[in-house]
Write a sequence for this structure.
């Protein structure tokens, strides 16, 4: 009797490619398998974190000035090595590395750029709260001689993006611009199996998600917007949910609807989240699922990047709540004259 495996992530991307690009070489599926392999390695370490000495800080700090957790470092090494040997990845860029890593200089061979946050939310590792890996994939200009320029492309140029959430189960969610699909890792066979085909973000939700300890320094219109959620202005009572791990907070918003907000604050006047490996990939997935992602003023995917680690405000979620936020912002602009 044949085991009924279901569709693996690699099979799914091959099927998608064949439907859309009949001459697809399967090299994209091979690239994706580098990400899924690395994330299986990371997931295994995250599950064991309480048992072996991978908890706690290494004592180093990264380019963000954040204390590097041992699993951060481990995850970064896993992604660099699993993607570095794919044979078609030319440039790798990571939250953990100040500069991009050029793997294959010739852009005709190293066709792709992969930008990633190896372990987002790592501050939550030691208290066993969900963390995630976020990735963004760009194509290099075949005539490029400038790896830095290959990396600093606006979000609408992404050819794929997604994340792996290390939670009660390990889940891969990604898009190649043809909708969003979710895969759950079956640890008994070590494969990500299609579990959430064609994910659509609900047009409206019942939850809002942000760190309200920063409320005093939010822009005035933003405080009025928040009050609307609390007052149940149109008869809809919203509840607040905040994990403090972007992948977990966004994944809930993707499946349940609602809104995730990280506006400018006194501590981070340009926003806290990073454009290239947090806001852009999350924004691509959100839009492909029918949601909206802005920095409060413009579409995230239209922002022209100036540096690899630049930070932006991020507002992302269901159409209804995001359009309401836009109306509050416009009223503010008109009031300001
Ligand atoms: P705060 C984790 O450090 C992170 O980069 C995101 O995963 C998360 O959404 C955000 O920061 C949480 O920031 O200021 O609320 O702790």
């Amino acid at each position: 009797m044949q085991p009924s495996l279901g569709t693996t992530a690699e099979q799914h991307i091959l099927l998608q490619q064949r439907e859309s690009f009949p001459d697809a070489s399967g090299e994209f599926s091979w690239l994706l398998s580098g990400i899924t392999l690395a994330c299986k390695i990371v997931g295994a370490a995250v599950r064991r974190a309480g048992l072996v000495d991978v908890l706690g800080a290494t004592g180093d700090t990264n380019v963000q000035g954040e204390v590097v957790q041992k699993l951060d470092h481990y995850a970064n090494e896993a992604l660099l090595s699993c993607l570095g040997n794919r044979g078609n990845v030319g440039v790798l860029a990571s939250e953990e590395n100040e500069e991009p890593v050029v793997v294959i200089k010739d852009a005709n061979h190293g066709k792709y750029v992969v930008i990633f946050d190896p372990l987002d939310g790592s501050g939550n590792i030691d208290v066993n709260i969900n963390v995630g890996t976020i990735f963004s994939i760009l194509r290099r200009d075949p005539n490029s001689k400038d790896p830095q320029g290959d990396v600093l492309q606006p979000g609408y140029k992404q050819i794929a993006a997604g994340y792996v959430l290390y939670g009660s189960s390990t889940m891969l969610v990604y898009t190649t611009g043809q909708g969003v699909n979710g895969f759950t890792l079956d640890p008994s066979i070590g494969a990500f199996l299609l579990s959430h085909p064609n994910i659509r973000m609900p047009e409206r939700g019942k939850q809002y998600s942000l760190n309200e300890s920063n409320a005093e320094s939010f822009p005035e219109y933003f405080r009025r917007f928040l009050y609307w959620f609390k007052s149940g202005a149109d008869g809809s009572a919203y509840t607040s949910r905040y994990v403090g791990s972007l992948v977990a907070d966004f994944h809930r918003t993707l499946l349940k609807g609602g809104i995730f907000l990280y506006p400018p604050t006194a501590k981070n006047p340009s926003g806290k989240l990073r454009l290239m490996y947090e806001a852009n990939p999350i924004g691509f997935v959100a839009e492909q699922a029918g949601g909206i992602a802005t920095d409060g003023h413009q579409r995230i995917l239209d922002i022209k990047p100036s540096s690899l680690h630049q930070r932006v405000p991020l507002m992302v979620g269901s159409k209804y709540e995001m359009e309401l936020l836009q109306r509050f912002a416009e009223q503010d602009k008109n009031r300001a004259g």
Summary: Helices lie at 9-20, 27-48, 70-84, 147-151, 220-231, 246-256, 275-288, 319-336. The chain is about 30% helix and 25% strand.
